[in-house]
Design brief:
The complex is a heterotrimer of chains A (159), B (351) and C (165). Chain A is mainly β and 159 residues long. Chain A has 1 helix and 9 strands, in the order E-H-E-E-E-E-E-E-E-E. In chain B, helix 11 links the parallel strand 9 and strand 10. A 10-stranded mixed beta sheet of chain B has the order 3-2-4-7-1-8-12-11-9-10, with helices on both faces. Chain B has a two-stranded antiparallel sheet with strand order 5-6. In chain B, helix 7 crosses helix 11. Chain C is mainly beta and 165 residues long. Helix content of chain C is 12%, strand content 39%. A 5-stranded antiparallel beta sheet of chain C has the order 9-8-7-10-11, with no helix packed on it. A 3-stranded antiparallel beta sheet of chain C has the order 3-2-6, covered by helices on one side. In chain C, strands 4-5 form a two-stranded antiparallel ribbon. Classes of the chains: A mainly beta (159), B alpha/beta (351), C mainly beta (165). At the A-B interface, strand 1, helix 1, strand 5, strand 6 and strand 7 of A face helix 1, helix 6 and strand 5 of B. Strand 1 of chain A pairs antiparallel with strand 1 of chain C.
């Protein structure tokens, strides 16, 4: 079978480092646009399917039936962890640069899991079923990171 | 339906960093080997279809450059999917079914070593509400792994057993990147990479390429003593919103398996594209495989996972065991997207 | 109240380390020494530059390096009147396809030191190299090509040879 001749051993392969950047401007459409507008105002809105399920983040259609979704509904800024993973060593692009959890969070009044980070300090503080609440960014601008992260909900009264 | 069979499979050795070779130099020897094995001349192959993603090596239109590895003169009939090349095989199969081709060459490749794979795979996520969070592929899989641990009878020990078996099987695969004898206890003693996943639960990052040649009825019979007939092939996709899915099951695999007729006969071997140990468990259940089915004799994606072609390699690994007579009826699976979002199932059988 | 959100900017930035590959690396190392290396296809015998380790037409590996002259024939060109973002080449300038003597595929480069109304297909050109101390592993070691005082070449003849290879 054909083999390319090996590189001479006396030098390292030539290499060049570069950074590719894509700053796309995306149209949100009315549904995601309304959700992001809500975030800017520190409010989380989901959308109701015809069957009455509440999707957060909202989608233009019901992923189960393909039918258009209907009314927007405000959901709580706190909820329950459905599943989580613990990042002991954050990557540079992660939202927190200290150990943290990723979680799917069912916000109060929602029927789907909402993906975000949880600043829990230590893995032992995380558990499925725990309550967490939003920590808003200092400045909101209509972007998913207007939610800085979630944090364990110290006010367990509603649980 | 036309009878279509896999008649040849070849792959490059899976390596962490192919370093000094470019994608053409990775692909070309493998294409040459697959064509030589097929018994067809290059000029006799009607259609060429590839799977790759330019983001992996960071070179726009790299898939066009990669065509040098297959040769495109006189002008060839060609197509490309920005997915695992298993889907390029599906497109080729459809092309043959349509009567517009009688044979096809399918290849997939990646040189993921150029970039940071965990970050690159972020780009396949919802660009509004998920990708900007910066979540990576391992963190997403770990969410699925925890959900499975908590909603099923599986334990981390079961995950480790999957790793041990695949890496042991890989000892017989000269193209494997990771192979060897490990013990469950040894693996469970490791720290987590992204809890609950340990390093051994994750497929390695690989550079590589693989190539399959398929042909219709008479051609396959003429050039191949024992073609691996594609008895059924189907692929299904689930909603992109992770929070709207039940991550502990694979509804798309289950439906694809039903459509492809997996359980219309006994299965000897299964090659499952599970880049994470827990995903093999989910897939085994979705395919309703019996306990006597040999799973991943090649070592699977845990032994080597060149993005965009590890799924095609699963079809090739299953087919080559049928072509050689080691197996009679097998199922191959390929996945794409986060947490088993899209799944392809292919049933292969000897004469 | 402020306007509803209708658009967002989603910045993406990815870091890569690129390696050229065997054939391209030899091409780049050749340039560092002031040489232009092509490769001959063992099947159609055409000489390809820059080499990538494969004949794109035949789909076969290429391994035989061929040193090429730094003179050639310009076959086609365009005169660029707008600045190219990120480039310090000032318009108007000529971007051209040049068949180096000994090569069977065109190399893209710039042609300078010619009045724009004199430029024509078939013109003979020669590389204008940077001073040797500035040479790197790059085709930019050649600043551009300049006209050569030689009779024009019949481009159709050149194209015919390649088409029938």
């Amino acid at each position: 079978m054909f083999q390319y001749r090996p590189m001479p051993a006396e030098h390292e392969p030539l290499h060049a480092s570069f950074t590719l950047e894509y700053a796309y401007t995306r149209s949100t459409g009315p549904v995601v646009g309304r959700f992001l507008t809500g975030l800017r105002d520190r409010r989380i809105e989901g959308v109701k399917t015809r069957e009455g399920r509440v999707l957060v983040p909202p989608a233009e259609y019901d992923p189960e039936t393909g039918e258009a979704t209907e009314d927007f509904v405000e959901v709580g800024s706190a909820g329950v962890v459905q599943t989580w993973s613990w990042v002991a060593e954050p990557l540079p692009k992660h939202p927190l640069q200290r150990p943290f959890a990723w979680a799917l969070i069912q916000l109060d009044g929602a029927d789907t899991g909402f993906l975000h980070a949880v600043d829990a300090g230590d893995e032992s503080q995380m558990s499925t079923g725990m309550r967490v609440r939003v920590r808003w960014a200092e400045e909101t601008k209509g972007f998913i990171t207007d939610i800085a992260c979630f944090e364990p909900d110290s006010n367990e009264a509603r649980a | 339906m036309r009878d279509v069979a896999v008649i040849s499979f070849a792959q490059a050795k899976n390596v962490r960093d192919a370093g000094a070779v470019n994608e053409v130099e990775i692909i070309m020897p493998v294409v040459a080997e697959a064509i030589a094995q097929s018994g067809l001349a290059r000029s006799e192959i009607d259609f060429t279809c590839s799977g790759s993603s330019d983001y992996l090596q960071g070179a726009p239109f790299a898939f066009v450059m990669a065509l040098d590895g297959a040769g495109a003169w006189p002008p060839i009939s060609e197509s490309h999917v920005e997915m695992d090349a298993a889907w390029a095989l599906y497109e080729s199969w459809v092309k043959i079914q349509s009567g517009h081709a009688d044979s096809a060459l399918i290849y997939g490749f990646s040189k993921a070593s150029s970039g940071k794979l965990r970050e690159v795979l972020n780009l396949q996520l919802d660009p509004y509400c998920v990708a900007p969070l910066g979540i990576d592929s391992v963190s997403l899989a770990a969410l699925q792994a925890r959900a499975l641990l908590e909603k099923s009878a599986y334990s981390e020990k079961d995950f480790a057993e999957v790793a041990v078996r695949n890496r042991a099987n890989a000892k017989n695969n000269p193209k494997a990147q990771l192979a060897g004898d490990y013990s469950v206890d040894e693996i469970l003693a490791e720290p987590c990479l992204v809890s609950p996943l340990r390093k051994h639960d994750c497929a390695p990052i690989s550079d590589g390429a693989s190539v399959i040649v398929i042909a219709a009825g008479d051609i396959a019979r003429r050039v191949c003593k024992r073609p691996a007939w594609i008895r059924g092939i189907d692929h299904r996709i689930e909603p992109h919103s992770l929070g709207a899915r039940d991550l502990t099951v694979s509804a798309s695999t289950r439906l694809a398996a039903e459509k492809a007729g997996v359980n219309q006969g006994p299965i000897d071997i299964a090659e499952l594209h599970a880049p994470f140990t827990h995903q093999e468990l989910i897939l085994r259940d979705a395919l309703q495989l019996k306990d006597d089915v040999e799973i991943n004799p090649s070592g699977g994606a845990l032994a080597g996972n060149p993005m965009m072609t590890a799924g095609l390699s699963r079809i090739g690994e299953a087919a080559s065991r049928i072509i050689s007579g080691q197996a009679n009826r097998g199922v191959a699976h390929a996945t794409s997207g986060p947490c088993l979002q899209q799944n392809l199932v292919c049933v292969l059988e000897g004469e | 109240m402020s306007e509803p959100i209708t658009q967002i900017v989603t910045p993406t930035s990815l870091d890569y380390t690129f390696t050229a590959g065997g054939a391209t690396e030899r091409f780049l190392r050749g340039l560092k020494d002031g040489k232009i290396l092509g490769q001959r296809c063992p099947k159609c015998q055409l000489v390809i530059v820059p080499a990538r380790g494969a004949c794109a037409r035949c789909g076969v590996p290429t391994e035989d390096d061929v040193e090429l002259a730094d003179t050639g024939t310009m076959t086609t060109y365009t005169i660029v009147h707008i600045p190219v973002p990120g480039s310090d080449v000032k318009p108007p300038f000529v971007a051209a396809t040049i068949f180096l003597d000994g090569a069977d595929i065109g190399l893209f480069h710039l042609v300078h030191e010619v009045s724009l109304d004199k430029i024509r297909p078939g013109m003979r050109v020669k590389a204008s190299w940077k001073p040797q101390e500035d040479w790197g592993f790059s085709l930019t070691n050649i600043r551009y090509f300049v006209p050569l005082d030689e009779p024009d070449v019949d481009v159709t003849e050149l194209e015919r040879r390649i088409a029938h290879a």
